Structure formats: structure tokens, C-alpha cells
Amino acid sequence: MVEINKINKITNKVIISLIILGINFNLSSGFFSCIDKIKNTSSNLVSKIFNFGQEKLDEKNEDFIKGMINRFKMNNFNINIFKMNNHSLQKFGQNNAFVSFSNAYFSKSFLDKLSQDQKEFLIAHELMHIKNQHTLKMIAVTSGCALTTGLLSYYISKYIDKNYLKTYKNKLPKKFQNLLSSNLVLSPGLLAMSAFTLTCYSRFNEKQADRDAALNLGDIKGGVKLLELFKSNHNKPSNRLFNYVNSWFGTHPSSNERIELLKKLKINT
Hints:
- By secondary structure, the chain is mainly alpha-helical.
- It is 74% helix and 4% strand.
- It folds into two domains: 2-113, no CATH class; 134-263, no CATH class.
- It has eleven helices and three strands, in the order ααβαββαααααααα.
- It is elongated.
- The chain crosses the membrane at residues 14-35, 138-156, 176-201.
- One of its GO terms (cellular component) is plasma membrane.
């Protein structure tokens, strides 16, 4: 009888565990399905808000990109391929490409002047941004930074004002008391820290996209040649202070740094 009870208890636990797993699986599937819908809606919304447009790329380049999507087994990402419109070209430059969620935007004139290996690396780089869901992660990091900055600013300034500035505040006329706040110093500093965090993460994403593109292609030649082209197209400002600040707060690493990182992969050169 005791053995039967033990078996019944074990059976009940197994059944309950399976039910919980089933519920979690359904919830997870629903969650990720919901995420996909949100991503698709967000792609279209961002495209409209920032006027990226949804102009079709020419058939030749579109077929080339679709071939690479198939080559990297990324058909399940439902990637939309668009031509950069005039607004995007003015904002990001003629020699560029970018992604927003699962939307990929390319400059036709830029694609047409690239060699085969340069074009492959450019497209692979943008596809890796989509594969790694960098847009979604960037939004999450941005939201986290905004929330953290707001909370830190509120609670730290409240503590400092209460314990250190209260005496000085009481000596001021009432209408000026609210002006004396540690937030005046804290907020700019915390905002700078937040901006630094975001640009660091952006540079990490670019390096990751470069690395994954090279690994998927099995070659760094196209990447090196493309980055050399970028380097020649962008005149580096002579102002040392600007260059120093940009090295810390720029959204992209320098072309030289990216080239050196590619060479360290030690794949086909």
C-alpha cells in the first residue's frame, strides 16, 4: 500500500510537471509570437515616423540579397528589402546601409559601385544586425538606461538634498529654495554616463556584426576592402579633442579599429 502511494505521488508530480511545462511552452510560444508581431508593427511604424520609406530595390540587387539570406539560412526572419529613399540618403549618406528591426535599407548607387566581395560583406553585416536582433536589444538597453538614470537621479538627489543641502536651502528665500538641488549636477553627469553606455553598446553591436559577417562568409578580404573604402570616403577631422570624444561617444568604431579586429579573426585573408 505504501509503495502504491509513493507511485501515485510520483505520477501526480510528473503529471503536474508536464502540465506546467505545457503551460510554459504555450506561454513562451505566445510571447515570442507576440514579439514577432510587435517587431513587424514596429518596423512599419519606425519607417513611417522617420520617413525611411518602403521603396523597392532594383531586381538585380534584391535577388542578390535574397540569395545571401538563403545562404545564411535566414528565411525565417522575414526580412524586407528596401531602397534608401532621398530622406535616408541625406541622413545617412550615399555610401551606406542600415537596418530597422527586420527591414533592411540599401543605397542602390553604393551597391552598384562595390566589388563582389565588398558587396557581400556589406550585406552580410546588415543581415547579422537582424540575426542578432540589435534593434530590439538597443531599444531595451536605451529603456534600461533611461529608467536607471531617472531613478538614480531621483533617489541620490533626494538623499543629498535631505542630508546635506537642507541647511543651505532654509537660508534661501522660499521662491529660490527649489532651485538649490543636487539634480543640477547629477542629471548632466548621469545623462553623460547613459549616453556613454549606449554608444559603447552600439560599437559592440557593430563589432559583432563585422565578426559574424566575416565568419559566415569565411573571408575577411571583402570586409577589409569595404572598410578601407569607408576610411577614404570620410575625412578625419584634424581636431584632436573631437577625435578623442568621438572615440568614446561615437556609435561606430573607427575603420582602422574594425580592420584590425577583422584581421585578428585569422580566417582567409
